[in-house]
Amino acid sequence: PFPFISNLSLNVAVLVRDPDTGQQEFARVKVPQKNLPRFVQIPIELSGRHPAPVFSAVPLEQVVAFNLELLFPGMSVEGHYFFRVTRDADLELRDLEADDLMEALEEGLRKRRRGGEVVRLEVADEVPESVLQLLMQGTAVEEEDVYRVSGPLGLDDLMSLLAVPLPQLKDRPHKGRTSPLLARAQKGLLEDGSLKAEEFESIFSVIRRGDVLLQHPYDLFSTSVEEFLNQAADDPLVLAIKMTLYRTSKDSAVIAALIRAAENGKQVMALVELKARFDEDNNIQWAKRLESSGVHVVYGVLGLKTHTKILLVVRKEKERLNSYVHIGTGNYNARTSSLYTDFGLLTARPEFGADLVELFNYLTGFSKQQSFRRLLVAPVTLRKRKLGLIQREIDHARAGRGGHVRAKMNSLVDPGIIALLYEASQAGVTIELVIRGMCSLRPGLEGISDNIRVVSVIGRFLEHSRVFWFANAGEPEVYLGSADWMSRNLDRRVEAVAPIEDPALRHQLEAVLDLYLNDAGGWHMRGDGSFEQRPSDGDGLRAQATLMERWRGGLSPARKAVA
């Protein structure tokens, strides 16, 4: 029988012939991946190149392929072709029928490791039709699931080359800065003597004075979000901490702070989303550890995935309970905070705190909250409000007041929003979109989307932030949050999107959107769905490089733009 092909494994399809009988046979050789490097380093002098390269390696699958006669002694090797399969990794869970979600997930993970159905077959471009048909039959895929690849398969393994000690070939290391607003709120600097006691102020004092906008990786996660959580864990006035965890890093300071807070007698609640794809096992282990430490762990609302990034701290101050809030576009993950671009808002505005109290009640109990003061919450209010904001721009445009929408997100695929954006374009609304990934909207189509342009910015950091700007006839409204314009985010996930109330912070976000929309290396989407890179004369600004330079100079984008 055709052998079982494990998910994402590298394989060699081998044709061998018995010289005695003349019979041709098919064999499959699995390339080892667990304990051997994908790229086998060889001495530079063996490369045969002049000048000599700085590093020389050969892919492991080629080492295997060109030594197949050692595996098939006495046989004639007539051909070898590389291939790999991708299996369906979705866990089919019926929440309502699962008495214990964690137990159901652990069983689902065991099934995933055994493998779902094959959804993609990748083959080397030179594979002959006869071998391809054999592979298709053995993996039960159709023609539309076959991808011919010119070059190596499994390019994600190229990441291993980052470990090669050749700093001259790499970007200059980027280390973010501590937000100037939080510079005197670092407990570590107070403890090591770098900051005098009279100069120190708690992070709660800073947030009470005004909203703080964070932009990672330019603002350090450790001196902002982690500092906020660490001070909350140790502050005797803090009574409760509640937060959502979707993905977090392995050696997580966030988890350590929550455990310490519980040990300090605070009421600590963590909503751990067990169904975060490919992080299920990691999150199960965190949930067990948190629960054993006295943290109240919940898994969210039946039938919905909790994707929102929210953190609530309740503090007793002068016989009153005050709330401090963090709402972000990215995960509470120290590692990805240095690789992904994300925004976060720290605020003590009472309406935000009240909204988060009610949202956590919705997530942890039987509340059926249907309205919120300031936050846009999916699946309750977010879709309706976003459609309403676009419709308002249409109404402004038709009344001669102009209309303008700007948005930055990962993906735009929701049919309802796309249809309304087409209507807005036809009404004269200018629509400018920065979309890193999937985009089902077609810009620049005559009579349909003439007033829409789509830009994708690909750079050193993964663009992950979501920002939404509406001109509102000269009184702009700006929002940030965890939700893309996708049906799953609007209807099947718990999401929170927050308005930016501070005019200076709105101006800062407007300046960042300007930068991305005019990125000198940005990819512009054509009406047929293809992309072309914007031609650059070398003098144009690149968004990520510019932001790194501005932060090194100690100026926020807004202040730099004004200057």
Structural description of this entry:
28% of the residues lie in helices and 24% in strands. The chain is of the alpha/beta class and 563 residues long. It folds into 3 domains: 11-169, Polyphosphate kinase middle domain (polyphosphate kinase like, 2-Layer Sandwich), CATH 3.30.1840; 180-370, Endonuclease, Chain A, CATH 3.30.870.10; 377-562, Endonuclease, Chain A, CATH 3.30.870. Strands 12, 16, 17, 18, 19, 21, 22, 23, 24 and 25 form a 10-stranded mixed beta sheet that branches. Strands 8, 9, 10, 11, 13, 14, 15 and 20 form an 8-stranded mixed beta sheet that branches. A 5-stranded mixed beta sheet has the order 2-1-5-6-7. Helix 6 packs parallel to helix 7 and helix 10 runs parallel beside helix 11 (415-426). The longest helix is centred in the C-terminal third of the chain and has 17 residues, at 382-398.
Give the key terms.
polyphosphate kinase like; Endonuclease, Chain A; alpha/beta; 3 domains; 10-stranded mixed β-sheet; 8-stranded mixed β-sheet; 563 residues
Short description:
This protein is of the alpha/beta class and 563 residues long.
Number of strands: 25
How many angstroms separate the termini?
Answer: 71 Å
Q: Label the overall shape.
A: globular
Counting structural domains, the number is 3
Roughly how much helix do the residues carry, as a percent range?
Answer: 25-40%
Radius of gyration: 27 Å
What is the beta-strand fraction?
Answer: 15-25%
CATH architecture of the largest domain: 2-Layer Sandwich
Structural class: alpha/beta
pLDDT under 50 segments (min length 5)?
Answer: 94-98, 554-563
CATH superfamily of the largest domain: Endonuclease Chain A
The helix tally amounts to 15
Major sheet description: 10 strands, mixed
CATH top level of the largest domain is Alpha Beta
In the CATH hierarchy, the third-tier topology of the largest domain is known as Endonuclease, Chain A
Q: What is the average per-residue confidence, as pLDDT, rounded to a whole number?
A: 90
